[in-house]
Each structure stands twice: as C-alpha cells, then as structure tokens.
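Run log, item B.
One chain of 292 residues. Sequence copied directly from the ordering sheet:
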Amino acid sequence: MPAAESDPPPIRSLLFVPANRADRMQKALATQADGVVFDLESAITRATAAEARANVRHALEAHTPGQPAVFVRVSAVGTPDFAPDTDACRHPSLTALMLPQIAEPSEVAAASDALEGTAARIMPLVETASAVRLAYELATASDRVAYMGGATGRHGDLGRSVGFQWTPEGIETLYLRQKVLIDVRAAGVLNPLSGLWGHVDDLDGLTGFAQQTRQLGYEGMMIIHPSHIPIVNQTFSPTPEEVEGWRSLIAAIQEAQAQGIGAFRYQGRLIDHAHLLTAQQNLSRAERLGLG
C-alpha cells in the first residue's frame, strides 16, 4: 500500500468540525491544530449529508500543504451512508478516514478495501466495549491504521457501552485508555490519540486531563473547540530544555561508548544503551513536530 511507505504526519491536536458548516471548516483549516476532522457522521443530520459531502470534497480539493491534516469521520461501515461518505473523500489531500462504532476487524479491512488506490490512512474509533476488548486486532486489521486510542467522553458512546460514570479525574476510564494504548503500541501504531474533554470553558480541567493523557503515553488527543488547541499542542510538545537535554545525553552516551564504557553515571543517574534509544526516539519525534 502506498501509504505504508512513509510515516503519517504527527498529530497532537485533532479538532472536530461539522461537515455541514463550510464556514467553520474553513476557520478550522486556519487554526494551529495539527489536524481537523470533518464530521460526516454524528455531527450532522442525514438531511444535510449531500451538502456536507460536497463541503468535504471542496475542502480537500482546496487544501494546501501548510494547512492542518484532514481527517474525515464517515458513517459506520455497513451502513448505507458509508460508501457515499467514503467516495466523497477519496482525494490525495485526505490524511485519514475516521471510522466510528468499529466492533470487528473485518470492518477495518472493509474500509481499507474502500480506500484502495489511495494513500489514505485509517483511524478506528474506540467507542464500544467490543472495540476496547479487540483493540489489538482492530489495529492490526490493516496497514493503513496509523491513528488510534482510547476515547472518553461524558455520556458518550463508550460510556454508554461500558456503563461507567464520568468524572473529571478520569479514574473510571484509566484502564480503558491504558489497555487500548498498550494494544495499539504493540500493533505498531505510530500516533496514538485519545480524548475527549467535553467542557469547552474548563481550560484548567482540560490542562489536567491532557497532562494525564500525555503521561500515559499518548501522542495527542481529539478536541472539540479551537480554544483547546494551544493547551493541547503545548502539553504534547517537548520543551526546548527537554530537546537540549536529549541532545546532550546522546552526545554523552556516544562519547562513553567510543571509550568502551557501557553504563555510567550522568547527572546523578545511571545511564546505559536503553537511555540512548529513548533519547533518540524522543528527539526524532521533536524533529517531526518541527521542534528539534
């Protein structure tokens, strides 16, 4: 598959926009979000589906390299709207197809077949108990899967499926997010994404939730409002001090290895080859974000 030949663009912030609102779609493309999701599924009514598909097609055709990456959430695989939704976004500017209500690996494979001849990636949404249980199988159902992770949301699909009671602290979803993260990491998914934070005006709550999500190991999160972009981007970005620290650590380890030294003390810590690999990985991500 052509898409497998290059890494997908890194995504820290992924902003949802209703695809029946052309004005909001254009505003979203002018933000600092790493990616936008034009929503052809739950954010629109079926009566506006044809108009929304036309809006998506126009946005893809007018997309320029400097704008956020474009994802499109289509209707669920197997529904009558899946094929026309997917046809509307078969375009080189499409970064990824977002698949809602995924429950079986065969659905991911069917979506991959529908994208045949394109380089588009796939992001299965974890919105059911079945998807949590089969996260590894879903992530490995197609080479196109490049974005995936445990999602949360107050009174959302996953909450209804599992039955948890949402809290701002997120303890009730901690296992769900961790389990899915381990599965998608084991599957080799390069850009695990989680979310959502549903309180538009509670930026302090968003900050805490984003920090927790980053500490778990996610690369970014889905968001619902442009005001969330700066906080999420900052949370999932390394600081200049971290970047410089990785460079210095790499140099120190390489110098020690040149002298035949494997493990040594560095700034009060015991350092060995594993720390070199971690620092190199972190620095590579920073460089892909344009921060290295």
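Observations after the first pass:
- The first strand starts at residue 13 and ends at 18.
- The chain has a mean pLDDT of 93.
Flagged for discussion on Thursday.
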